[in-house]
Specification:
alpha+beta; 4 domains; Rossmann fold; 58% helix; Beta-Lactamase; 730 residues; 21 strands; 16% strand; Four Helix Bundle (Hemerythrin (Met), subunit A); 7-stranded antiparallel beta sheet
């Protein structure tokens, strides 16, 4: 589509440019003329100064003439010129001072002339005084004959002549500049007149051309209007066009179908008559978009839930917008409104809402399923894991059984770890990974993990060497998650290192970071494997998956955990079959003050605790039996309950610690602790034993009143540590 150029916009700019040129020329000529006038006035002032200087010189000459005539004639009447000169000189010298102050004369020259004149007048007065004195005229004539007076007069003449010559030369220079400026003004006027004449000749031709282009533009405009009408009539939305008073001038067939008004009936009608709209909820009239555009002058759209009342009274949900039609000067001379039937979109949004609700319900069901699955998988593992832990510490266990117990325990812990990894992955996806930060000795955390994993390494005859050389090895971390990272890396290294291999752990400090390197002599990695190793469910090649098994979650979770604590983890390998190195970096911090003294520990490495009265609430019979037997073996008195009701009854007796399962036959452990805290004012520590390991489950337990929690399968060593802390606190 050819754009129509405003026919006279170019001429307007040119006429404006010529007008500006004329104004600029006149202004420049005025400024130059003013400057020339200033130069002329200054030259005139110089001529006046020359006249004043010469008049002053003439006055000094008159004074000398009167003195000489008096001395020669010895007659007082000859002193008249001297006397008149004495009276005129002060005014003449004052006039010269004023001209010096105005910058016309040089002040130092005027001062020099005044000084010479004062000396001359003093000499003349001296001779006159001598003539009047005892020596008489001979004495005065003697002074005259000394030529002192002639020298003074010659100095005055020279000073005046110098000043006059200077001012006359300056006047000549100014007159020359004035002549140049006058010529410039003349040339500027002549040049401007010539340019304007040429412009008028050009403008005449341009106007003739503009008239021809204007006629062509009107033809193009008619063509474009026809094209616009066809376009508006063919688009898929309803279109209504109005004039500046809101009267309809055009509506397309879609608008006819939507409003129920024919084009013949609608054209000329006020838009609010044809386009009646209501709020679908309140049933109150909504301001017509055309009226809103004419009032505000901006593009507008309707709010949600707006319906169009058709001519036959039926309703259609619509969506619309209105925009002003502006003249080149910005004046609004009409409005174009576009609207569409919103019924299909309304159905789509409703379907989308239903799908979203179903997806959220499915997600909740999935989370509930994972929680229940976690509980059902964890609960049976507790008695097995606790029993195996106890057997492993039992020195009286038969030899062939002792060799199998660590293997069984590792298998149970692996199953528990897989459950935890799946739940951790769910937490990360939902953005609900919680961390508890504290300053910790990372070397100690690492050594504790290595000690716990020592039996697994011994089972494959893998040699673990540790050279922890970092001088600064404290950091602000979540100790549990940090140990989980170390556990995953060591487990990964042991898994892919053949029997009899080596794992080397070293540490050092680089740029306020603690770096720990885990280097193994295992199967190594290709560059492709290293690019995927930290992705969930990735273990490298299919052959490695078949050979070594696993879900491929450990390293992915470790990367998330370490980055959430401000650190990083990286992997490197020289290639397949050449081992691999995993590097963990974490920002360091200052070590806390004080070094707690080590406490006495039993053979399991757990601090020995004084006996406690423990209320154990557990409905899983095997778990309850095993935990009771092991706790009593440690010297504690254990009271069993298998429901909320039986636990409330048992709680009437005094006890030091409550260990309670969350899932109970007649309620939950949260109900139990809430009842005991509120009605019986129970203040003893309470630990939740939960197979529901999601953050929401743990948070609910803490809110209900539990002071701590253990996720099933229960790690009996962690339980012993908790009991030790409670015993120490009491």
């Amino acid at each position: 589509m050819t754009a129509i150029r405003p026919p006279r916009s170019g001429l307007k700019r040119l006429f404006l440019a010529m007008a500006l040129l004329l104004v600029a020329t006149m202004a420049g000529t005025f400024v130059i003329g003013e400057r020339a006038r200033d130069y002329n006035l200054k030259a005139y002032s110089y001529h006046q100064a020359v006249d004043a200087l010469q008049e002053t010189l003439s006055t000094y000459k008159d004074a000398e003439t009167g003195q000489r005539g008096y001395l020669l004639a010895q007659n007082e009447t000859y002193l008249a010129p001297y006397t008149r000169a004495v009276h005129r000189l002060p005014a003449q010298l004052a006039d010269l001072d004023a001209r010096a102050s105005a910058g016309i004369l040089n002040k130092s020259d005027v001062d020099q002339l005044r000084s010479l004149g004062e000396q001359k007048m003093a000499e003349l007065q001296l001779t006159i005084d001598l003539a009047h004195g005892p020596g008489g005229f001979p004495a005065a004539i003697t002074v005259v004959k000394s030529n002192l007076g002639m020298e003074k007069m010659d100095a005055i003449r020279d000073q005046v002549h110098t000043m006059v010559a200077q001012k006359e030369q300056q006047a000549i220079d100014l007159a020359h500049i004035w002549t140049i400026l006058s010529n410039i003004c003349t040339l500027a006027f002549a040049g401007t007149a010539l340019v304007n004449l040429l412009f008028l000749v050009w403008a005449f031709g341009r106007i003739r051309r503009e008239v021809s282009e204007r006629e062509q533009a009107f033809e193009q405009l008619a063509h474009q209007q026809q094209l616009t009408a066809v376009t508006l009539a063919s688009i898929g939305d309803g279109v209504i066009v109005t004039d500046g008073q809101g009267r309809i001038t055009f509506l397309n067939q879609i608008a006819v179908n939507l409003t129920g008004w024919s084009a013949a009936d609608a054209v000329g009608q006020n838009c609010s008559t044809v386009f009646k709209i209501l709020n679908e909820t309140t049933r109150k009239p909504v301001e017509n978009p055309v009226e809103k555009v004419l009032r505000s002058g901006v593009t507008v759209g309707l709010a949600n839930h707006t319906v169009l009342i058709r001519r036959d009274g039926s309703e259609i949900p619509i969506d619309d917008s209105g925009a002003p039609i502006r003249a080149p000067g910005g004046t609004i001379y009409g409005v174009v409104m576009v609207f569409r039937d919103f019924t299909g979109r309304r159905k789509f949004e409703e379907n989308l809402r239903i799908a979203k609700e179903e997806a959220e319900a499915a997600n909740i069901a999935k989370d509930n399923f994972l929680a229940v699955l976690s509980h059902e998988l964890r609960t049976p593992l507790t008695p097995v894991l606790v029993t195996l832990t106890a057997w492993e510490q039992n020195a009286t266990l038969p030899g062939e059984l002792r060799e199998d117990v660590p293997t069984l325990r590792r298998c149970i812990e692996l199953e528990a770890r897989l459950i935890d990894d799946l739940l951790d992955l769910t937490r990360i996806i939902r953005g609900k990974l919680a961390l508890n930060f504290e300053v910790a000795d990372v070397h100690s955390l690492l050594q504790a993990v290595a000690s716990m994993y020592r039996s697994d390494l011994d089972a494959k005859s893998i040699r673990l060497s540790m050279s922890l050389g970092a001088e600064v090895h404290h950091a602000t971390v979540d100790t549990g998650r940090m140990q989980q990272v170390f556990w995953n890396i060591l487990k990964n290294a042991a898994k892919f290192t053949p029997t009899g291999g080596n794992i080397e752990v070293t540490s050092g400090n680089v740029d306020h970071q603690l770096q720990i390197h885990f280097t193994d002599s295992g199967v190594g990695m290709s560059p492709e494997t290293m690019n995927r190793i930290f992705q969930p469910f990735e273990q490298g090649s299919a052959e490695l998956v078949r050979r070594y098994g696993g879900l491929g979650l450990g390293l992915s979770l470790s990367k998330t955990f370490i980055e959430a604590q401000g650190g990083s983890i990286a992997a490197s390998s020289p290639g397949p079959g050449k081992g691999a190195t995993f590097t963990v970096s974490i920002p360091t911090t200052d070590a806390p003050l004080g070094d707690p003294k080590p406490k006495k520990r039993d053979r399991s490495g757990i601090e020995s605790a004084r006996p406690l009265r423990i209320l154990l609430v557990e409905d899983h019979e095997d778990t309850a039996h095993v935990l009771r037997r092991l706790l009593e073996r440690l010297g504690h008195h254990v009271e069993l309950a298998d429901s909320v009701a039986s636990a409330i009854k048992a709680a009437r007796k005094p006890f030091d610690l409550l260990l309670s399962d969350i899932g109970l036959p007649d309620g939950t452990g949260n109900d139990l602790i809430r009842e005991l805290r509120e009605t019986q004012h129970l203040s003893v520590p309470a630990v939740a034993l939960t197979g529901f390991g999601m953050e929401e489950d743990i948070a609910r337990s803490r809110e209900a009143g539990f002071t701590d929690y253990l996720t099933k399968p229960v790690n009996f060593q962690r339980l012993q540590i908790m009991i030790q802390k409670i015993a120490d606190a009491r």
